[in-house]
Design a protein that fits this description.
The structure holds two protein chains of two kinds. Chain A is an all-beta fold. Chain A is built from no helices and eleven strands. The radius of gyration of chain A is 13 Å and the shape is globular. In chain B, the strands form two sheets. In chain B, strands 2, 4, 5, 6, 9, 10 and 11 form a seven-stranded mixed β-sheet that branches. In chain B, strands 1-3-8-7 form a four-stranded antiparallel β-sheet, with no helix packed on it. Chain B is globular, with a radius of gyration of 13 Å. Classes of the chains: A mainly beta, B mainly beta. At the A-B interface, strand 5, strand 9 and strand 10 of A face strand 5 and strand 10 of B.
Amino acid sequence: GEDVEQSLFLSVREGDSSVINCTYTDSSSTYLYWYKQEPGAGLQLLTYIFSNMDMKQDQRLTVLLNKKDKHLSLRIADTQTGDSAIYFCAESMGSNYQLIWGAGTKLIIKP
Amino acid sequence: ETGVTQTPRHLVMGMTNKKSLKCEQHLGHNAMYWYKQSAKKPLELMFVYSLEERVENNSVPSRFSPECPNSSHLFLHLHTLQPEDSALYLCASSQDPAYSTEAFFGQGTRLTVV
């Protein structure tokens, strides 16, 4: 069955780059997503990438997709304390609105 | 205000209790969702409503009973829950089920079953 896996924790120093990784099993994924959940808040869509793209950049965020290895990553440049959150990776198969979610990676920022 | 409001924020209930979770959205959306978020587990989609009709029910035990009286309100009625049902329950809404990925999420209800 479909599966999305992420590390549960990532700790980085303020000002460094954070790289959050995700692997998925279903090669028919059409879109892959990153969601952010700040403490005490609901999830919000951060960015997404279509499966025929390799990279997408949006200000401090860079999404890299390696379709061959079924690996997705989210790079946050110049990590700030406000980036502390849980980051969820998710995939969809396009016609089915149900997303397959990872368990989330908690990003911890050290001063 | 986030657009999607859930009440209560925290709930502790015994296994024999009956309680309800409430979700309200004033975004003009037609689709509403209940998700279960357990620690260290993927988010689980429980129910999807589109124009007040249930369109998805992901093998959720009958001790969870959803209700959607109108497109702005969604309830999750709880009865005879188990300790393993303790989790964060998230409500979300979107313009249409086809746009579930652009859903707006509420802050969740932290449920503890004792």
